[in-house]
């Protein structure tokens, strides 16, 4: 039926994700630095290095949040290029826009509130799409990957930066301990919201591992898919092309 279990579950997840990011938006950047001990900057730098982006190109930073990647791409594509920072969450988008404006980045940036599952862009539009720590939060990941495939130009590439499966058992255990016990406590202390960070830990555990995500990308039509583990596989960068 229309209001069957799946529909209700999906709606519940979507509204929970909305609550989480509304709640943390203002302190999002601080929390990223704190919780990853600054390492998220290195993960993002590696992503930029793998982007192959050139002046004049069109880039979509999807689930772009507070715009860390978008800011870098804006410089790389230059005034003849274009960067779209898209996010489903108004509060995150606003923090991103304010931050980028403060940095003096204006000319080639667009801000779009959009759901990754149904992107409001023409077919074959972007040279590059990045989604960093975003796919995990999307309810229907298959649908989102198909939508990304559609708006990517032939020859274009998709980069998915996301938490993944730690490659060493001991690291995996330590990491579980950290994410389920330490992370929510820091969330409670700094943002006054331990629950959102409890969600974060759960969403990381639920997220597809390296090989599963690779298969999902392939099923969406992407080719020449490779991935690169970082920090022992706590995070992985997947790359795929549309031909
Ligand atoms: N990319 C940024 C970064 O790396 O710092 C932000 C990542 S943040 C952990 C995840 C973002 O995904 C949030 O801003 C959230 O609003 C966004 N998001 C969640 N579900 C989404 C969806 N279905 N479509 C687009 N964005 C979504």
Automatic annotation (TrEMBL):
<comment type="pathway">
    <text>Quinol/quinone metabolism; menaquinone biosynthesis; menaquinol from 1,4-dihydroxy-2-naphthoate: step 2/2.</text>
</comment>
<feature type="binding site">
    <location>
        <position position="87"/>
    </location>
    <ligand>
        <name>S-adenosyl-L-methionine</name>
    </ligand>
</feature>
<keyword id="KW-0808">Transferase</keyword>
<dbReference type="GO" id="GO:0032259">
    <property type="term" value="P:methylation"/>
</dbReference>
<dbReference type="GO" id="GO:0043770">
    <property type="term" value="F:demethylmenaquinone methyltransferase activity"/>
</dbReference>
<dbReference type="Pfam" id="PF01209">
    <property type="entry name" value="Ubie_methyltran"/>
</dbReference>
<keyword id="KW-0831">Ubiquinone biosynthesis</keyword>
<comment type="pathway">
    <text>Cofactor biosynthesis; ubiquinone biosynthesis.</text>
</comment>
<feature type="binding site">
    <location>
        <begin position="115"/>
        <end position="116"/>
    </location>
    <ligand>
        <name>S-adenosyl-L-methionine</name>
    </ligand>
</feature>
<dbReference type="InterPro" id="IPR004033">
    <property type="entry name" value="UbiE/COQ5_MeTrFase"/>
</dbReference>
<comment type="similarity">
    <text>Belongs to the class I-like SAM-binding methyltransferase superfamily. MenG/UbiE family.</text>
</comment>
<keyword id="KW-0949">S-adenosyl-L-methionine</keyword>
<dbReference type="InterPro" id="IPR029063">
    <property type="entry name" value="SAM-dependent_MTases_sf"/>
</dbReference>
<keyword id="KW-0489">Methyltransferase</keyword>
<protein>
    <recommendedName>
        <fullName>Ubiquinone/menaquinone biosynthesis C-methyltransferase UbiE</fullName>
        <ecNumber>2.1.1.163</ecNumber>
        <ecNumber>2.1.1.201</ecNumber>
    </recommendedName>
</protein>
<dbReference type="GO" id="GO:0008425">
    <property type="term" value="F:2-methoxy-6-polyprenyl-1,4-benzoquinol methyltransferase activity"/>
</dbReference>
<dbReference type="GO" id="GO:0009234">
    <property type="term" value="P:menaquinone biosynthetic process"/>
</dbReference>
<feature type="binding site">
    <location>
        <position position="66"/>
    </location>
    <ligand>
        <name>S-adenosyl-L-methionine</name>
    </ligand>
</feature>
<dbReference type="GO" id="GO:0009060">
    <property type="term" value="P:aerobic respiration"/>
</dbReference>
<comment type="function">
    <text>Methyltransferase required for the conversion of demethylmenaquinol (DMKH2) to menaquinol (MKH2) and the conversion of 2-polyprenyl-6-methoxy-1,4-benzoquinol (DDMQH2) to 2-polyprenyl-3-methyl-6-methoxy-1,4-benzoquinol (DMQH2).</text>
</comment>
<dbReference type="InterPro" id="IPR023576">
    <property type="entry name" value="UbiE/COQ5_MeTrFase_CS"/>
</dbReference>
<keyword id="KW-0474">Menaquinone biosynthesis</keyword>
């Amino acid at each position: 039926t229309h209001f069957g279990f799946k529909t209700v579950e999906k709606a519940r997840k979507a509204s929970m994700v909305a609550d989480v990011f509304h709640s943390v938006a203002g302190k999002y950047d601080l929390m990223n630095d704190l919780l990853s001990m600054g390492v998220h900057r290195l993960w993002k730098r590696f992503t930029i290095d793998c982007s192959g982006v050139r002046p004049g190109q069109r880039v979509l930073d999807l689930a772009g949040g507070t715009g860390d990647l978008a800011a870098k791409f804006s410089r790389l594509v230059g005034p003849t290029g274009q960067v779209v920072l898209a996010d489903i969450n108004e509060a995150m988008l606003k923090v991103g826009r304010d931050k980028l404006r403060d940095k003096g980045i204006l000319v080639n940036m667009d801000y779009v509130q959009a759901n990754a599952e149904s992107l409001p862009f023409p077919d074959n539009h972007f040279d590059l799409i990045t989604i960093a720590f975003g796919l995990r939060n999307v309810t229907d990941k298959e649908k989102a990957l198909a939508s990304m495939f559609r708006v990517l130009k032939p020859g274009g590439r998709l980069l998915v930066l996301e938490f993944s499966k730690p490659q060493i058992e001991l690291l995996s255990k330590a990491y579980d301990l950290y994410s389920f016990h330490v992370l929510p406590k820091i969330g409670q202390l700094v943002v006054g919201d331990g629950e959102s960070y409890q969600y974060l830990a759960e969403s990381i555990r639920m997220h597809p591992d390296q090989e599963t995500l690779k298969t999902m990308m392939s099923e969406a039509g992407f080719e020449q898919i490779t991935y690169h583990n970082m920090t022992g596989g706590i995070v992985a960068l997947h790359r795929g092309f549309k031909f």
